[in-house]
Fold this protein.
Amino acid sequence: MSMRALQTARSALLAHRAAVEVASHNVANVRTPGYARRRLILSSVGTATGSFGLDTGAGVSADTVQRMSDRLLQTQINVESGHLGSAEVMAEGMFEVETVIAGADGQGLLTPLGALFDAFGEIAADPASQAPRNVALARANSLCDAVANADADLRSVMRRNDEQLVADVQQVNRLTAEIAHLNERIAAAGGPGKALEVEDRRTQAVTQMATLCGAVGVPRDNGSIDVLLGGHPIVEYAHARQLELDDDPAWPSLHTVSFKGQTPPAGLDGKIGGYLTVREDGIAAARAEINEFAAQMADAINDVHAGGFGLDGSTAADFFTYDLASPAGTLRISPAIAGNPDSVAAASCPDQPGNGETAMAIEALRTQAAPGSVDSLLQIHANFMATVGSDVSATDATHDARECVVTALQARCDSMSSVSLDEEALALMEAQQAYAAAQSVVEAALSLVDITLQLGQ
């Protein structure tokens, strides 16, 4: 009996020492990113016949160290992280668009366009004077600069968007290679539960991929994880495929993404999907609106100005000129007018220097419906700014909602996987007490052995 008790106590000492080691490892990694709490799995050692033929048991066995995680919950986190990554990029991109469109004063092109209308009103009040014409030309130059700067700033936003797209695609390709390598290491170690630190890192890498492109992981029986994008494997055990960067046909200086010949890939989400979406639906749409507005504004003013007469008798002259391929970037005062303030048309008839009807008609465009629209030029731009503001609010709301979902899921995951110092302190105390109790069993068993030996003498 005493020898069996020694064996039982020995198993207890070893098992509870392992419990102390596991708890110590958890405490050591309380701040380690991606670390999942470990739990020692104990089981009773099978039947053993003791004194008087009784089943007294044979001690305890430390079977394995379990990594505390929930695969289904982690998959949910990855799916939602992809949605959040896309929403984050959309919100940031639309905020940049709004910043450009609104300008420093929050009024966008309304301020310089209103100032130009004011200048023509001043010309109408004093049509024979050259001074208000100089003011009008200066304000027209400011308007052209504001339009060109808005277009240039939006191009810069597109370039930054593309640079980040390229960087994130390259990061995804590094992650696919890393996950494939980690799969090999886990399989070589014997499968699930045999290389816990490697599993931690792989879980992090899969979540990073989900955030970047919306890929999801599918576990295999051998402990490896296949990573799917749109239902197609981008990582299959130890084989990694890559996303491809191609020239965007719509924007030759920028890039788009393809996978297995599909551009863009089905199921593409995350930040990379967000970059492509906000480029087309946000930045490019804003550039198209600015270019359309520049042409519409120039045409409206030109139509009225061409029917008037300058102090020098000139007529049929456009006030603005632009290239149809890029109205916003090329909007300028017509060269003939820019160098000759007297050619600014104010009169509706020739040889009437006191006539300011044409200038008055241009000033009236402030409130009159623009050609092809029921709104004035100022209202058209105000409506555009309001639409951008509404889009910003919508993308912010979507981002906040997605963030709440991920935060809630992560909190559930953390309740299982993260290290609680209070819980580990309790586990350490229990393991220490159990170890001390096992030592007492050893002492009692040795005492029984001594007594038995003495009885045998």
